[in-house]
Backbone:
C-alpha cells in the first residue's frame, strides 16, 4: 500500500512537472493572449466567451435553467462573470485572463485541463471530470484555477436578483426611509 | 427620514476631492497628512483636526455614503472592498475581506467591538516590552471611544444564526457572551457588510470623518499613496496617483502632498507596503513581517427550522471558551462567532459545485454557519506572514498555512460541529473540498480527524489583518516605538492595526480605536503645543 502510494505520488509528481513545463513553455503566448484581452479593455474577451457558457451550467447544475430560459441564462452568466472579473485588481485580472486563455487554447486545454473534446463538443460529464480533477489536484496551481472558476461563476450567478427565488432569499428589505 | 451626511456637509463647505475627476496634477499642504480613512485614520483625523491642526486624509477607495448603500453584494464588493472582496494571500490559501472606501473596513465590518483582551496585553508587556500597554492605562481610551462610537452590549434578541451558537454551546456547558456593537439606533437589518443604509453603525464614515471635515480637514478619495519622499530622517512629501473611476488602475494625474508630519493608517497590508515602496529604513528587518490574520475556518450546518441568516444583526453572540482554556502561547485557541449569510458570500465560500452545491443553496434559509478565528502570533511557531510588493508596486501578503494553523483548524472544526449537532443540526459540513457532510456528531468526529489539512482544500478566510509595522521600545526588534513613531523617520507615525506585535484574539476594530486614540493624542499634543482635544 505504501509502495503504491509512493508510486502514485511519483507518477503524479512527474505528470505534474510535465504539465508545469508545458505551461511554462506556453507562458509567453499565454501572457500575450492575457495581455491582449486586457489591452482590448474588454473583459468579455473571446476565451471567456468560449469557456464560461460551457462550464457555468455544470458548476450551476441543479439551479441552471433548461429549456426556453437557458439561452438568456447563458448570456447573463457570461456577462456576470465578465463584470466580476472587471472588478478584480489589475494583478488578479491578468491571472484570470491567463487562466481563460489557457483553457481556450487547444494544446493547453488538452495538456493542462485534460479536456480532449473541444469546448463546443464537450459534454457535462467531460466538464465535470475536468473540474473534479482540478478541485482535487495535487498541484496548487490547478486547485487555485478551479477555485477561481468556482468563485467567479457562483459569485456572478448569486449576485443576480433573478437567481434568488430558487434559494428562497427574499432580497434586501425595502426601507421606508421617510 | 434618513439623512446622508455627505451631500449636506459638502453643501456646507466640506473639502472632499474625488481624485478620479482631477483635470490636472496638483500639490497640497497641511500640518498632518493621514494615509487611510479607516479605524486608525478616522480616529487620527478627528483628534488632530479638533486639536487645531490642518489635516489631509488620503483614501484610495471611493466615497460612498448612506444613500449609496442598497444592501446589494453586487454593488458593495466591487465598490467598498479591497480587490472586490477577493483579495488573496500569495498562495491563494486565504481570502481576505478588507474595506477600501472612505471609512475603510469600518464602513463594511459587522460592528463587533471588543477591548483588547487582557491576556493579549499581558503578553505584549512580557514579550515585547510594551510596559504601558496595561488594562488600566488603556481603560480611559477604550471608554472614550466607547462613548464616541456608541459601543455597548447589544441586548436585542440575537438572530437565529447567533442564537444557535448559544443553544448548542450551552448544551455542552460552553459559555457564550453578548457582543458589544458600535451602533446607535440599529434597525437589526443584517446588512452591515454592504454599508449601513440607516447610519446606525457608528463607522468612521458617519462619526470621526464628518467631525474632522467640520474642523476643516480635507479628504482626497480615489487617490493612491504611492511613495513617501525621504530626506535624511524626515519625510518631506507623499507622492500620490489618482485612480480611475472604478478604482482599479492608477491614472496619469499626480498629487504631491507636503506636511510637517505623516500618519500611516492604510491597514496592515497597505501601511507596510507604502514603507516598502518608499525604501524606508528597516534596520530591524521587521518591516512587513509578522503579519497576522486570525485565520478563520467555517462550519455550515443544516437545520430543520428556518434560520434566515441574512436577517438581523450579523454578530451578536460569541464564545471565548476555546481561547480561555488554552495557554496563550500554546496550540492555537479560537474565538467562535457566527457570520451573516448572503447569497454571494455563502455560495462562493461553500465547497463543491453542481448538484451538491445547488442542494445546499436551495436550503439557504436553513443554513446555520459558525466561524472559528484562530489566535495567531502567540505560539512561537506561529510567525505570521510577510507583506511583499508585486512588480507593479501593489502589495501581496505571503501567509504560509503551516502545521500550527492546521492543528488549530482541525480542533476548531470539531468544536463547531459538536456545537452544531448539539443545537439540533441534521447535517454538518466542514467547509473543505473533501467534505460531503456528516449526519451525526460521531460521524463528523471521525470525518474531521481524517480531513487532509491542505492548502486550497481547507477553506480559510480572514477579515482581520494585523501586524507588519510592529511596535516596541527596541529599534532592533520593532519598526515603530510604543506610540507608533517610526524608529528612524522623525516625522512619521503608524496608526493602524499594523502596530500590533501579534494578532488581537478578538475582532480588532476597538483595539485600533483605543490604541490609536492614545497614541495620536500624544502626537496632537506635541504638534499643537497644548493638550490634544478629546473625542466627543
Residues:
Amino acid at each position: 500500500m505504501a509502495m503504491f502510494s509512493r508510486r502514485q505520488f511519483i507518477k503524479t509528481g512527474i505528470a505534474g512537472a510535465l504539465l508545469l513545463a508545458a505551461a511554462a513553455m506556453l507562458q509567453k503566448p499565454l501572457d500575450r493572449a492575457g495581455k491582449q484581452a486586457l489591452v482590448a479593455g474588454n473583459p468579455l474577451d473571446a476565451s471567456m466567451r468560449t469557456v464560461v457558457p460551457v462550464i457555468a451550467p455544470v458548476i450551476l447544475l441543479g439551479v441552471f435553467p433548461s429549456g426556453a430560459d437557458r439561452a438568456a441564462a447563458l448570456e447573463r452568466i457570461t456577462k456576470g462573470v465578465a463584470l466580476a472579473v472587471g472588478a478584480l485588481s489589475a494583478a488578479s485580472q491578468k491571472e484570470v485572463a491567463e487562466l481563460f486563455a489557457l483553457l481556450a487554447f487547444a494544446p493547453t486545454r488538452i495538456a493542462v485541463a485534460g479536456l480532449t473534446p473541444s469546448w463546443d463538443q464537450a459534454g457535462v460529464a467531460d466538464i465535470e471530470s475536468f473540474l473534479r480533477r482540478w478541485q482535487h489536484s495535487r498541484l496548487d496551481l490547478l486547485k487555485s484555477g478551479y477555485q477561481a472558476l468556482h468563485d467567479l461563476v457562483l459569485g456572478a450567478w448569486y449576485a443576480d436578483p433573478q437567481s434568488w427565488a430558487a434559494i428562497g432569499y427574499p432580497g434586501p428589505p425595502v426601507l421606508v426611509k421617510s | 427620514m434618513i439623512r446622508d451626511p455627505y451631500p449636506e456637509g459638502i453643501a456646507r463647505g466640506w473639502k472632499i476631492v474625488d481624485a478620479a475627476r482631477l483635470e490636472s496634477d496638483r500639490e497640497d499642504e497641511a500640518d498632518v497628512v493621514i494615509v487611510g480613512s479607516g479605524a486608525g485614520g478616522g480616529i487620527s483625523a478627528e483628534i488632530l483636526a479638533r486639536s487645531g491642526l490642518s489635516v489631509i486624509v488620503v483614501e484610495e477607495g471611493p466615497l460612498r455614503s448612506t444613500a449609496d448603500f442598497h444592501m446589494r453584494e453586487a454593488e458593495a464588493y466591487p465598490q467598498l472592498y479591497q480587490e472586490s472582496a477577493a483579495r488573496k494571500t500569495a498562495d491563494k490559501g486565504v481570502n481576505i475581506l478588507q474595506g477600501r472606501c472612505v471609512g475603510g473596513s469600518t464602513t463594511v465590518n459587522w460592528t463587533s467591538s471588543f477591548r483588547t483582551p487582557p491576556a493579549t496585553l499581558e503578553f505584549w508587556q512580557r514579550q515585547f516590552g510594551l510596559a504601558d500597554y496595561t488594562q488600566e492605562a488603556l481603560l480611559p481610551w477604550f471608554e472614550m471611544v466607547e462613548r464616541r462610537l456608541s459601543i455597548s452590549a447589544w441586548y436585542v434578541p440575537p438572530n437565529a444564526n447567533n442564537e444557535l451558537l448559544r443553544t448548542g454551546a450551552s448544551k455542552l456547558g460552553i459559555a457564550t457572551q453578548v457582543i458589544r456593537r458600535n451602533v446607535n439606533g440599529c434597525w437589526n437589518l443584517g446588512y452591515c457588510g454592504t454599508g449601513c443604509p440607516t447610519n446606525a453603525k457608528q463607522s468612521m464614515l458617519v462619526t470621526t470623518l464628518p467631525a474632522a471635515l467640520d474642523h476643516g480637514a480635507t479628504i482626497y478619495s480615489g487617490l493612491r499613496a504611492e511613495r513617501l519622499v525621504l530626506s535624511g530622517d524626515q519625510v518631506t512629501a507623499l507622492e500620490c496617483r489618482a485612480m480611475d473611476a472604478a478604482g482599479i488602475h492608477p491614472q496619469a494625474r499626480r498629487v504631491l502632498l507636503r506636511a510637517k508630519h505623516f500618519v500611516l493608517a492604510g491597514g496592515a497590508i497597505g501601511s507596510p507596503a507604502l514603507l516598502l515602496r518608499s525604501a524606508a529604513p528597516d534596520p530591524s528587518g521587521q518591516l512587513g513581517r509578522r503579519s497576522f490574520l486570525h485565520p478563520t475556518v467555517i462550519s455550515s450546518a443544516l437545520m430543520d427550522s428556518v434560520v434566515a441568516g441574512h436577517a438581523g444583526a450579523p454578530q451578536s453572540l460569541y464564545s471565548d471558551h476555546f481561547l480561555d482554556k488554552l495557554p496563550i502561547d500554546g496550540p492555537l485557541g479560537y474565538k467562535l462567532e457566527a457570520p451573516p449569510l448572503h447569497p454571494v458570500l455563502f455560495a462562493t465560500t461553500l465547497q463543491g459545485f453542481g448538484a451538491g452545491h445547488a442542494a445546499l443553496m436551495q436550503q439557504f434559509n436553513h443554513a446555520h454557519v459558525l466561524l472559528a478565528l484562530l489566535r495567531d502570533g502567540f505560539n512561537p511557531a506561529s510567525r505570521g506572514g510577510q507583506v511583499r510588493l508585486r512588480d507593479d508596486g501593489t502589495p501581496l501578503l505571503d501567509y504560509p498555512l503551516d502545521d500550527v494553523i492546521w492543528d488549530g483548524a482541525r480542533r476548531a472544526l470539531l468544536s463547531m460541529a459538536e456545537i452544531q449537532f448539539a443545537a439540533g443540526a441534521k447535517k454538518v459540513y466542514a467547509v473543505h473540498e473533501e467534505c460531503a457532510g456528516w449526519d451525526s456528531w460521531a460521524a463528523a468526529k471521525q470525518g474531521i480527524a481524517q480531513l487532509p489539512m491542505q492548502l486550497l482544500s481547507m477553506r480559510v478566510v480572514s477579515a482581520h489583518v494585523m501586524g507588519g509595522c510592529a511596535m516596541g521600545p527596541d529599534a532592533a526588534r520593532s519598526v515603530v516605538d510604543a506610540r507608533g513613531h517610526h524608529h528612524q523617520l522623525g516625522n512619521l507615525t503608524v496608526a493602524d492595526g499594523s502596530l500590533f506585535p501579534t494578532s488581537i484574539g478578538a475582532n480588532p476594530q476597538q483595539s485600533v480605536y483605543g490604541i490609536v486614540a492614545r497614541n495620536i493624542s500624544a502626537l496632537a499634543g506635541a504638534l499643537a503645543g497644548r493638550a490634544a482635544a478629546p473625542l466627543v
User: Anything to note?
Assistant: Residues 66 and 199 of chain B are 7 Å apart (CA to CA). The longest strand of chain B covers residues 250-264. Chain B touches chain A through 51 residues (CB under 8 Å).
